[in-house]
Amino acid sequence: MIEVLDVDIAMILCVTLNPCLDKTLTVSPWRPGDLVRGGAVRNVVGGKGNNVARALSRLGRAPRPATFLGGPIGAYCESLLREVDGLEPFVIKTEAPTRVILTVRTESSAVQTAFFDPDPAITASDAEAMFHQVEQALSAEAPAALSLCGSSPSPATQGLYSDLIALARARRVPVFLDTYGPALDAIWGFWPSAIQLNRREAAARLRKQSVTDHDVAGLLDEWERHGVECCVVTDGSNPVSIAHKGRRFRAVPPQIKVVNPIGSGDSFLAGLVDGWLKELEPESLFRHAIACAVANAMVWDAGAIDLGEVARWSDQIVVERVTR
Known about the structure:
By secondary structure, this protein is an alpha/beta fold. The chain is about 35% helix and about 25% strand. Helix 4 (about 160-170) links the parallel strand 8 and strand 9 (about 175-180).
C-alpha cells in the first residue's frame, strides 16, 4: 500500500466512466503466430480517472475514484483500488463486466502492443446511479475539485459528464475535464474550469485527420469563449499549447528516456489539479503539471509518480508566454 502525505484533507472526486483492468504481460521477443510464454504479469486498475486518482494520492491529496465496475474483474479492480492503491472508491456495480486491456510488453525494449476488450454496455439506470452518487458526494463531502476523465463506454453515458459539470459548477466546485468523442461533443451550457486534450483528440474534435498549430489556437479560442479558464492541448514529448485566463503559453517538456508513456496525460491533469488548489502562478502551475507527466513516463504503472522526480524535473521545464 502506498503512503499518502497529508497535504490537504479535502477530498478530490475522480470520475471514470470506462475503467479497465490493465494487465501487462512481459514476454521475450516474438512474432505473430509464435507460442509465447509470459515471464511476468502486472495488474493495475486503469481508466483515466483512476490514473488521475493514483497520481493525486502520490501528490499527497485525498482522491476518491467514482467508477462503474462489474463482474469478477470489476470486483478484483475494486480490491486493487482499496488494498494496493489505498483508495476508497465509490463503486456503481453493473451487470456489464469490466473490460480488460492486455498489454504485451517485449522485455529489454520499449515495444508494447495493447489488446482492448469491447466497451461495457452501461445502462441508463447505471448512469443515473452514477449521477446521484456524485450529486450526493458533492453535497455531503464538499470536494475540493472534480475530475472527469476518459471516454464514454455507451450511449447511456454520453451526456453524463455534461450533467456532472452542471452539478459541480452550481456548487462552485472546480471541474477538470479530459475526454473526447461523444462525451466531449455532448458538453453544453456549463463548461469545466479546465479542459485537456491531446493533439490526436483535438483533431477528432475538429473532424480532421491532423491539426495545425493554427487549428489548436482556434480550439483554445473556442474553449475560452465558453468560459473555460485553463485550456490545454498536449502533444506527447512536444511542446504543450495552453490558454490561461486570456494569456497564451507554450511549455516545453524535457527529453527523457521513456519507460511507459501511458498515463502521462492523466498525471499531467493530476498535477494541474494539485497546482490549481495550491494557487500556483501560471508558469509554476504548468511546470508542475508537466513534471508530473515526466515522472509518470519514467515508471511503468500509470500514475505511480515519485515526488522526488516531480521536484527534480520541474525546474528544467521551459514555459514561455506567446502572442496570439
